[in-house]
Design brief:
By secondary structure, the protein is an alpha+beta fold. Helix content is 57%, strand content 10%. Strands 5-6-4-7 form a four-stranded antiparallel beta sheet. The protein has a three-stranded antiparallel beta sheet with strand order 1-3-2. Strand 2 and strand 3 form a beta hairpin. The radius of gyration is 20 Å and the shape is globular.
């Protein structure tokens, strides 16, 4: 199963790198741009553009492509892709072997397990001297919610012309709360038209946004309403002000180039390629606001990227699952 992690938003795992791009329209607030250069640089490091004629196969290619991803980030991908559908506990040794195929050291994997346990996404179970791990109800709910979003992501529906408008800002001096507000509004697909003014062409997300503002404790000072554009203004220009669509399109182009480079030739290589595929794709629901076709450039590279993701994920699924099950079988107690 593939997915995007709402857990990232609530635990602040790996958000800095993607948040800088997410709300960076021309009207984004100053705080949104504060970490933009560093975030974009971190993301760019994961996408070393190369000539497809020099495509690599095997574990070496997978490890090189995954080299900049953190152990916690890769563990989340493995949990969503392989553990969530199976609904079975997984031994520590299985995680060590699986992330080892991705070039992650044993110490880093153990630290990632401990970190996600502290965040209450997974829970340990002792069996003698061995430990297995289960998704907690909270972890399962969050990953399942994310799965629903990513499976439908990339499908563009016709637009009725209505905008959700949200007036919300964090108190002065509250940098962390401002960061959470920005990233969670971006997760919900809103863009910043001007400081404190957020818009979305998806009015049906109003309840989700209001719930989030209440969770952050700033709903009392916020206002939301649904409206249509009047005599002044152009919808496409509004979209280009609120979202940096050019940057999003470049990221899609990088994704396409990188995926074409992955040519796994064994089940273990396919496991690594599948993790890599989902690892990169799951960022797009935070980067791409999912605008309707009427507000997008034509052609839109995101449509090509979505088709490629679904095609590769389907074709690699059987071999990747087989590799994961083999790792689980090797780690299982005997007798």
């Amino acid at each position: 199963m593939c997915y995007i992690y709402l857990a990232m938003v609530k635990s602040n795992v790996e958000l800095d790198a993607v948040a800088a791009d997410a709300g960076a329209g021309a009207g984004a607030d100053a705080g949104a741009g504060a970490g933009a250069d560093a975030g974009a640089g971190a993301e760019a490091g994961a996408w070393a553009t190369a000539d497809p004629r020099h495509a690599e196969t095997g574990a070496r290619a997978t490890r090189r492509h995954l080299g900049t991803a953190s152990a916690s980030s890769l563990l989340l991908t493995v949990l969503g892709e392989f553990v969530l559908p199976a609904r079975e506990p997984v031994w520590t040794s299985t995680f060590l072997a699986g992330l080892g195929l991705l070039g992650v050291e044993e110490k880093a994997t153990r630290q990632a397990l401990a970190r996600l346990a502290r965040d209450v996404w997974i829970a340990p179970q002792r069996s003698g001297r061995r430990t297995s791990w289960l998704l907690t109800p909270a972890g399962r709910e969050l990953l399942s919610t994310g799965a629903e979003r990513i499976y439908g992501f990339g499908t563009r529906k016709a637009w009725a012309g209505s905008w959700l408008v949200v007036l919300a800002s964090a108190p002065e001096g509250s940098r962390q709360l401002r960061h959470q507000l920005r990233t969670r509004l971006a997760w919900s697909g809103l863009g910043s038209l001007s400081p404190g003014v957020w818009i979305s062409p998806h009015p049906d997300r109003q309840a989700e946004v209001c719930r989030m503002l209440r969770e952050l404790g700033i709903a009392d000072g916020a206002t939301s309403f649904v409206a249509s554009l009047g005599d002044l203004g152009d919808p496409k220009q509004m979209a280009s002000r609120a979202w940096n669509l050019a940057t999003v399109e470049l990221r899609y182009e990088e994704f396409i180039r990188q995926v074409h480079q992955l040519r796994p030739d064994t089940p273990q290589d396919t496991f690594g390629a599948q993790v890599r595929l989902v690892q990169e794709w799951r960022r797009f629901p935070l980067l791409d606001p999912g605008l309707p076709p009427e507000l997008l450039p034509d052609p839109w590279t995101g449509a090509t990227a979505a088709a490629l993701f679904r095609s590769r994920h389907t074709s690699w699924k059987s071999a990747a699952d087989a590799a994961w099950h083999a790792l689980c079988d090797v780690s299982a107690p005997v007798g």
